[in-house]
Every structure is written in structure tokens, then in C-alpha cells.
Amino acid sequence: MTTAAADEANAPPFMTDFRADPETAAAWLRDADEAALRPYQLDLAHLNLVSVFGGEWSPERVRATAVECTRAGLWGSWEHKAFLTRHCDRFSAAGPDEWPRLCPQENRLRGWEAAPAALRDGPAILCSFHYGAFRFLASDLVMAGRHVTQPMGGPPYTMMASLLDGYRGPLADRFRIVSVDDDATGLFQMARALRKGEVVVVFVDGNRGIGGCWNEAGRVPLDFLGCPVRVKSGVARLAATLGVPLVPVLVPRGEDGTGTVHFEPVIDPGRRLAGDEEKEFVARAMAGMYAAFEREVRARPEQWEGSSFMHQWRVPANAGAEASTPPSELDRCLEAGGRLRTDPTRVVALSGTSSPVWTDVHTLKSFAAPEWAAEAFDRLSSERGIDRGWLAERAPDPLHRSKLLDLISRLVARRAVVVLEAA
């Protein structure tokens, strides 16, 4: 489930009231702690940020960035729904003769004056990512007079369809949503829009489409933030098949929260392509778009809302050979003043389960704590870890101590737990 689709049942009432005071929503998000944010995919954002930045950043910076990404997702979702609600109220009360006057007042992004000709005049696929103020791309284009089709899936599609039901205004006349969960129909409608000279807005990292986000169909291998990934390439294949340009754009927010469109060079097939030419174009287009996205994420990682679902397209690493560390060696280390704890660059503890669950961010394999070892798992996940004193107090029985050290020995072999020798 994405951030935008997170369960809103436990959210404060104003988070589902899109006519509420924006400052009330912003203030709640600023003050929300990790416990309040955890239902909105905080753990998954943390897991994925550890996988790409764990070797470069401190654990504290990684965790803080995951919190900011989660806040960004919640704010972006609420802000956009509030804008659409007020927009529909405003235009439904106005007559069509007033729309030309009202449309320029509805623009939410800066930088459109730099839009390439391909986006202004003809059919084009505007490609962005779940980053910054990306949600306003389609509505800004509609307010500028373009006809726009946008694929959506799951709750965002349902919400948008409900909001536009019975609405009178430019979004009703010039904006069409298609379901990515209805593979053949959605693709046909996007192709039809492009043949009519319209704009299709796609978020490339959604990796939905035919077969869903876990299906391997149509994926191409890339490197992203130092990790091997396999990403859906349907948007580039559609451009090649129809001979229409891809217009990559990123929308970082400034200090005032307003997004600015940053256009990357247009990727134009020039004509309809097939065979090896199509394959080459698709590989080049996807690599170019993700390279631009990587630069932006490195510059402003706290705006990366899509960090909560990168694991859906990252290639897990092989576990590798296990290095045996006998329980007796762990016991010797503890007696010498050492400690045992999880490797914060590799293991993330997931919440929401009755017993502790760890995930290896490299292999994406999880370890569930046996009930009898739940307290030890919690302690291993802490900064202090397990030392001689804790083990003597919590596992005084020799059999329990031996059983616990045997389990930890296997976790060390899997590189989930590290041995910290005494200073």
C-alpha cells in the first residue's frame, strides 16, 4: 500500500476533511512522532533508505530522512486532495464563461515557461516520479488548456473518480483518468489520447501496469542509487511504438513548499520504432530518466515519497556464504566486555507484528523472532545491544543462555548481527 493509500481510519479527523485549514494539517504533521507516522509506511521508507544510503549516512540521518519522506507523502496527498476539492467547489459554482478567467489562478507549479515545444504543441508523454510536488502536473497542464490522460490505480483512482463524478469544469472537459489495473483498456486509452495529440502524464517509478508491481513482464535492468533494479518500461515502449516524445520532468519543492518543474532533455524516438531499434530506445530512455531521478533524490532525499515502495523493483542480493561464529566465541566476546547488536546498515526492525521481525535490506529476507527470544531481538535492535550484564540478568539459566547464543550465532552467520569487541 502506498503512502497516498495508507489507512486513514486512524488519522486525525482533519486529514480526511479536505476543506480544513491547511495550517492545521501542516502543524499536525510537523509535530507527528514516529508512532503516529508508522501506519503510513514509515518502516518501508526506512528499509529502502537503509538499502541505498546505509553505507553512506549515519543511522540517525537515515531514520530522520525516512520520517521526512513519510511526512512529505502525507502532506502531498492531503494538499492535493484539498486543492481538488476547493477547485471543484469553485468551478461547479461558476459558469463556463468564467473558466478562462479562473484557470490561470489554479496553477500550482512554477517554471512552465521552460516547457519544451513537444509538450506545448503536440502529443507527448510527460514522465515524472513520486517526488516533490508531482501531483499538480496534470491539473496545471489542464489549466493551461491541454487535454490530459493520466493512468492511476487502487485508492487514488477511486478517489479521483469519485471527486470528478458530477463535477463541471475544465478537469471534467480536458482530464481523463484511466485504470492501470485494467491493463488492456488503460493502455488502449493512453494510445488513443496520444493519437489525438494529447498529453499522457505517467509516474515512471509506480512500476504498475500489466501484471502489477511484482510481475517481471516488460522490465529492464538498471542501476539506481548504487542498487541493481528491474523497472517497468511500458512508458518507453509506448513512446517507441507510436513515435511520440518522452518529456522527463521533476518537481522539487522550494523552501516555501511550492514546486518548480525542472525539465530534462526530451527523449524523442523521432518515428515509430520496432525490433532492435525499439529495444535500444527503451533501454536508453529508462536509463536516462532514472539517472536524472537519482541526481534529484541525492540533492533532496527528504522529498522522495516513493522511497516506501522501492523494494518492489529492487533486485535482492544473494545471501552469500554464511560465516560460522560458534556460540562459544560469542560468549568469549561478551565476557571480554564486547557487545552484540544488529547491523544498522543491513537490518531494519518492522513494526505492527506481535513478535519482532527483522528484514535484511540487502536480501529482502525477514527473520521473525521466536516468542521466547522476543526480548533479546528487541535488545539487539537497540543501540546498547546485548552485553554480559544483560545476558546474566535476562538469561541466568545455562540452558536458556546456550539456546539464545546458538540463535544469535546463526544471526551473526547471516550478517544480521555484528560482534562489537570491547574498546
From TrEMBL:
Record has Cell inner membrane as a keyword: yes
GO BP annotations, alphabetical order: glycolipid biosynthetic process
GO molecular function, a single term: kinase activity
CDD domains documented for this protein: LPLAT_LABLAT-like
Pfam family, any one: Lip_A_acyltrans
E.C. number: 2.7.3.-
Predominant place of localization: membrane
A GO cellular component entry from the record: plasma membrane
Keywords in alphabetical order: Acyltransferase, Cell inner membrane, Cell membrane, Kinase, Membrane, Transferase
Enzyme class (EC, first level): transferase
InterPro entries named in the record: LipA_acyltrans (IPR004960)
Locations listed in the record: Cell inner membrane
Name used for this protein in its record: Signal transduction histidine kinase CheA
